[in-house]
Specification:
The protein contains four helices and eight strands; from the N terminus they run H-E-H-E-H-E-E-H-E-E-E-E. It is of the alpha+beta class.
Length: about 180
């Protein structure tokens, strides 16, 4: 069962990497938790995850440096816990959400916030520009894309897990980095 999940995850990541010209750092949810989430349909076919850092477009000449920075920062961390808040909140509709508001669950983890901050600092020192579309980091996972006048009515996933790795994906990248 786990091998099937990993294979499906890797296939989706390869599709995403071909479609998107942007890169990011993500933590995927373990299967027991991911299966509690509804499909996001045409809006997002990526595996259930939380974004550690959305980097944006990275020039080809900086991709290897980007990977080295991520590996260096991540290796300074030990595996850490992430918990789902059991209350649905929303992001307002944007052009990126096809006019839909986004139902989400907040991710509770001090170490996740610390990892985001350390990655931002390392990229700034290295001179790699990070997309600043969302200047305040709000760790979350997406539940659904819904019309602005509606509320999320589905099941609310519950749980916590320990992150043992992060993934770099997008623009041809599909790299797993172990948290030591």
């Amino acid at each position: 069962m786990i091998a099937k999940y990993i294979n499906t995850f890797n296939q989706l990541v390869k599709k995403l990497a071909k479609k998107h010209k942007t890169c990011g750092v993500f933590i995927k949810f373990p299967e027991h938790l991911a299966k509690q989430f509804p499909s996001l349909g045409a809006h997002d076919n990526s595996p259930t995850h939380t974004t550690v850092l959305y980097i944006g477009e990275v020039p080809e000449k900086q991709k290897e440096l980007m990977k080295l920075i991520i590996k260096g920062v991540v290796h300074d961390f030990e595996p850490f816990e992430l918990s789902l808040e059991e209350k649905v909140s929303y992001f307002e509709a944007t052009k990126n959400s096809d006019g839909c508001k986004i139902a989400k669950l907040q991710i509770i983890s001090k170490d996740l916030k610390k990892l985001n901050k350390k990655l931002n600092e390392a990229f700034e020192i290295a001179g790699i520009k990070v997309d600043n579309s969302f200047p305040e980091y709000k760790p979350h996972t997406t539940l659904a894309y819904i019309k602005e006048d509606k509320e999320y009515e589905g099941k609310i996933p519950k749980g916590k897990f320990t992150a043992h790795s992060v993934f770099i994906w997008g623009d041809g990248c599909n790299v797993e980095v172990e948290i030591k």
